[in-house]
């Protein structure tokens, strides 16, 4: 028997919650609090859609691997001897033991710690000791997991049939991201932060900058708090900032054109399985990077850029990731739910592979702004989690500059509805 989602057991409550979702309003409390809904989220979202797990820079050499745990699943992402990246279930085909421990490492082959069955990075069973006559090692390779690399970004999908619209996303975002040449970057720093809130509150918080002005003094040195506002809705107090944005856009457009970089937004955050948004926008200050004054944090620019003044190329992908690609570095964010009210946020700073710490970049300067911003966000979403626990909580209205939060919730509700209708059709 395989573990299934609780959709089948709780169809009625869930379908009522899904049917009653009020667009433009935050979700009902059970979506953030219910253990049952947490299991639904793992089975119907994290085990069905494309999940961002890391970048090629994290597994640069053959044998380098990452492991990622999603609910009760554990997956190995490994670079094989031919340089291809593969994903396998982290489960021995003998009697099921967990194979690789730890979030990352490097191996020649994958050796089970129980009875030493040995698998190649490609997942073939190479050694199984003495077996009964007729034993066919070819039948006991590691179970594969779907993997898709998109210009250096690695996604996995646990579903038997993954959503194929990932191809469309890949095709459309590649011209934006590939000039940043992620295959020629290295990890400068990676930080894991455990947030005390439901994963959806972490995602929702990322999809707006309504809280930035009050909540992120360091980030707003460069990130314009006008984010998410339509031109005619910008409040009076932000008009000066908006003027600076407009001016910065002129130089950004010129630099982008010269460097062959598209900037125009593509926004398809809901209405499709692999919802995404991408756009290049200006940064405040020197316009180069996420530092206090906006100047580059690394002297070795990515790709073949002729200027660091390239603003931020921001990518948001449903359900678990966001990214900022800059002229001098890139920063990736991915989350995995750990419990109904606990979420792991992993942040990775990538610099040019030849950039030397202490010479080309100072690690503290490179990481300071997002390190602090993440801490501030963690405090905000813990506050949100605490609030929605109260019986007095009721869904509240999203402001116009929170429309991407609404899009995230819409995507999520659509996905659960789709899961429910598939189940009912069976
Ligand atoms: O990370 C992002 O995409 C930004 C930062 C602040 C708000 N959010 C839209
Ligand atoms: Fe892996 Fe026995 S469970 S070798
Ligand atoms: Fe924030």
UniProtKB/TrEMBL annotation:
<keyword id="KW-0479">Metal-binding</keyword>
<keyword id="KW-0411">Iron-sulfur</keyword>
<feature type="domain" description="Rieske">
    <location>
        <begin position="50"/>
        <end position="156"/>
    </location>
</feature>
<keyword id="KW-0001">2Fe-2S</keyword>
<keyword id="KW-0223">Dioxygenase</keyword>
<keyword id="KW-0560">Oxidoreductase</keyword>
<keyword id="KW-0408">Iron</keyword>
<dbReference type="Pfam" id="PF00355">
    <property type="entry name" value="Rieske"/>
</dbReference>
<dbReference type="InterPro" id="IPR036922">
    <property type="entry name" value="Rieske_2Fe-2S_sf"/>
</dbReference>
<dbReference type="GO" id="GO:0051213">
    <property type="term" value="F:dioxygenase activity"/>
</dbReference>
<dbReference type="InterPro" id="IPR017941">
    <property type="entry name" value="Rieske_2Fe-2S"/>
</dbReference>
<protein>
    <submittedName>
        <fullName>Aromatic ring-hydroxylating dioxygenase subunit alpha</fullName>
    </submittedName>
</protein>
<dbReference type="Pfam" id="PF00848">
    <property type="entry name" value="Ring_hydroxyl_A"/>
</dbReference>
<dbReference type="InterPro" id="IPR001663">
    <property type="entry name" value="Rng_hydr_dOase-A"/>
</dbReference>
<dbReference type="InterPro" id="IPR015879">
    <property type="entry name" value="Ring_hydroxy_dOase_asu_C_dom"/>
</dbReference>
């Amino acid at each position: 028997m395989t573990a299934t989602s609780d959709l089948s057991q709780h169809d009625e409550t869930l379908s009522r919650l899904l049917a009653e979702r009020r667009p433009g309003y935050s979700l009902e409390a059970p979506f953030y609090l219910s253990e049952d809904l947490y299991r639904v989220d793992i089975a119907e979202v994290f085990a069905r859609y494309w999940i961002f797990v890391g970048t090629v820079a994290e597994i640069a050499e053959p044998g380098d691997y990452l492991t990622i745990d999603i609910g009760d699943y554990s997956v190995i992402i490994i670079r094989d001897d031919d340089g291809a990246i593969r994903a396998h279930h982290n489960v021995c085909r003998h009697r099921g033991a967990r194979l690789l421990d730890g979030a990352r490492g490097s191996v020649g082959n994958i050796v089970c710690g129980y009875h030493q069955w040995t698998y190649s990075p490609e997942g073939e069973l190479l050694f199984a000791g003495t077996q009964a006559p007729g034993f066919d090692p070819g039948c006991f390779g590691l179970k594969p997991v779907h993997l898709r690399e998109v210009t250096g970004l690695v996604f996995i999908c646990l579903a038997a049939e993954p959503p194929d619209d990932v191809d469309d996303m890949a095709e459309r975002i590649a011209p934006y991201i590939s000039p940043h040449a992620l295959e020629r970057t290295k990890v400068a720093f990676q930080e894991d932060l455990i947030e005390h809130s439901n994963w959806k509150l972490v995602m929702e918080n990322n999809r707006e900058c309504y809280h930035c002005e009050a909540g992120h003094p360091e980030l707003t040195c460069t990130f314009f708090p006008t984010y998410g506002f339509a031109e005619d809705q910008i409040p009076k107090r932000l008009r000066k900032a908006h003027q600076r944005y407009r001016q910065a856009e002129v130089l950004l457009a010129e630099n982008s054109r010269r460097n062959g970089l598209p900037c125009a937004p593509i926004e398809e955050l809901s209405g499709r399985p692999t919802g995404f948004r991408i756009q290049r926008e200006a940064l405040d200050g020197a316009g180069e990077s996420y530092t206090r004054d906006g100047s580059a944090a690394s002297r070795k620019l990515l790709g073949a850029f002729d200027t660091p003044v390239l603003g931020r190329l921001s990518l948001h992908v449903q359900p678990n990731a966001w990214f900022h690609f800059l002229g001098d570095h890139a920063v990736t964010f991915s989350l995995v739910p750990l419990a109904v009210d606990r979420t792991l946020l992993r942040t990775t700073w990538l610099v040019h592979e030849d950039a030397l710490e202490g010479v080309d970049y100072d690690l503290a300067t490179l990481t300071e702004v997002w390190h602090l911003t993440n801490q501030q966000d963690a405090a905000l979403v813990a506050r949100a989690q605490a609030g929605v626990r109260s019986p007095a909580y009721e869904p509240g209205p999203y402001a116009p500059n929170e429309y991407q939060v609404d899009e995230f919730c819409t995507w999520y509700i659509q996905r659960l509805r789709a899961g429910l209708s598939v189940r009912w059709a069976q």
